[in-house]
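Final report, closing paragraph on structural work. Over the funding period we assembled a curated collection of sequence-structure pairs, and we close with a single example.
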Amino acid sequence: MKGKRGKILVVDDYTLHISLIRGCLEPEGFEIVTADNSYKVLDVILREKPALMFINLSLPGMESNKIMKLVCDDNKVKAMPILTINSQNSDLYDTRSGHNVIDNIFIPVKKKNLISKVNDILIKNDIMGMKHNQV
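Its predicted structure, as stored:
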């Protein structure tokens, strides 16, 4: 069933975050692709064409706001919804900076809540005709 429901990109250098998200979403039929640093993001997006991106707000390298702007400025992927990843201990919060940031998830995340949030976003994205991965 892996990948039958689409690809989701997780941009994070913290393997625990990736494992948590993968553990919640792969059993539901999503394929998880990853980028462990900010400089790989656009290449991974163009190659893998994910339907949704999770990005850690405290990613080293290029600031997450700059990554989101870069992604949203690219005409091939500008409609891709973004969820930010935040640690419960972090001082960073939802940026909602106009860069397609739909919502913020806090790690640790409840599996049921994450699945519901992803399903809702992808259904809404399909209904609104914003599927970016028809490149």
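The two ends are 24 Å apart (CA to CA). The mean pLDDT is 78. We thank the funder for supporting this effort.
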